[in-house]
Amino acid sequence: PLPYWSPGIDCFVVNSKACAGVLRKKGVSRRRLRVIYNGVPRKRVTPDRSVDAVRHELGLAQDEPILGALLDDGKNKGAEMLLRAFALAKDRMAGVRPVLVGITPDYWAPLVRELGIEDRVLLVPRQENVADYLQAFSFMAAPSFSESMPNALMEALFLGVPIVATGVGGVPELVGDNGLLIAPGDVDGLSQALARMAQDQTLRGACREKALAMSQQFTLEAKVENTLAVYREILTRRGFDVRS
């Protein structure tokens, strides 16, 4: 940790307030900390296919609501928690089809059968362009046990996807009026939040508008401008004229 106390370092840039909090606990002064959110490349949030094409691939009707998730097989991302929460809430989520993208279907199929939800859940392996699927999600679950600043949630903002997520790391900075937060590992809490989001179309509409508005904080242009502002601040503090 020696560099954190080095007088030669003018500024530490981190990608979330949560990360800044970690460095504060290690002794980095608030004066030397700046939060600059990551920027999402436009290509990452531009679908290659239409919503109709994605729904056709999944075998879903155009009016079937989708509970989406971008996960992997690791325990940290919470795929098991999501499946168990949906099994608890399925009777309150009539017609909703969970679509879990990025996992290994054969790995999760036994649990899906054990929970009795094999006729509802769709398991999709890792995809190159997740924006294709994000655009089709009616709402999205992110039940991680730990995170820094998850790209999947930033990308979801640009597609206006309402979010139900665990309040870990930088997630609360991404999920405010555009979604619902629950405690990590709280299966019952997640099932209740999923059911609420599924049942409340007005809530989903409000979350969608908030997500689209919030997305402008996470453009590449915003990151570049905020980074330049830090350089100007440091150079000015060092006595350089940066007015030009």
Question: What's a quick, concise take on this entry?
Answer:
With 244 residues, this protein is of the alpha/beta class. The protein has 10 helices and 8 strands. 41% of the residues lie in helices and 13% in strands.
Main features:
single chain; alpha/beta; 41% helix; 10 helices; six-stranded parallel β-sheet
Blueprint of the fold:
Blueprint: E1 12-14, H1 17-25, E2 33-35, H2 51-58, E3 66-70, H3 79-89, E4 97-101, H4 105-114, E5 122-124, H5 131-134, E6 139-142, H6 151-158, E7 163-166, H7 171-174, E8 179-182, H8 187-199, H9 201-214, H10 220-237
Parallel strand pairs: 1-2, 3-4, 3-6, 4-5, 6-7, 7-8
Structural class comes to: alpha/beta
Mean pLDDT: 95
How many helical stretches? 10
Query: Quick one: how many beta strands?
Result: 8
Largest sheet: 6 strands, parallel
End-to-end CA span: 37 Å
Spans with pLDDT under 50 lasting ≥5 residues? none
Order of helices and strands: EHEHEHEHEHEHEHEHHH
Strand order, main sheet: write it out.
5-4-3-6-7-8
Describe the global form: elongated
Percent in strands: 5-15%
Q: What would you report as the Rg, rounded to the nearest angstrom?
A: 20 Å
- Helix residue percentage: 40-55%
Tell me what you see in this structure.
The protein has helices at residues 17-25, 51-58, 79-89, 105-114, 131-134, 151-158, 171-174, 187-199, 201-214, 220-237, and strands spanning 12-14, 33-35, 66-70, 97-101, 122-124, 139-142, 163-166, 179-182. It is an alpha/beta fold and 244 residues long. It has a 6-stranded parallel β-sheet with strand order 5-4-3-6-7-8. Helix 6 (151-158) links the parallel strand 6 (139-142) and strand 7. The chain starts with 11 loop residues before the first strand and ends in a 7-residue tail after the last helix. The model has no long low-confidence stretch (mean pLDDT 95).
